[in-house]
Amino acid sequence: MARKLASFGHQVKLISPQFVRPFVKSNKNDFVDAEAICEAASHPVMRFVTPKTESQQTLAEWARVMLTRRHSNVRRRVSASDHSRRCRVGARMHVIGSIPVTPHRWESSEPLTQPGSALCCF
């Protein structure tokens, strides 16, 4: 919107919300927000924010999407490991190193691995 107004010849000044917050006097509503913005804009030492260019905005959006994607990948990986752990606990199977050990094998004298036997249940 700021770029569009600037293309019509207007001088655009943006105020960051963190700079307007000290000027809000009571509960938040549109009238109080507008009053705070006007008071902040008339303040002699107010710092204004320059509008972002289209390339800056695109880059920020791309970074936001990539961060969200990474967060969902981490969440999916943690969920899979938690599911695996719940399955092992449900089957009363414990893993020592990379060899699964079940309670009935602790009591028997047969070796942990036999030719052709599977080491893992999942």
UniProtKB/TrEMBL annotation:
InterPro entries: Transpos_IS110. It comes from the Bacteria. This is Transposase.
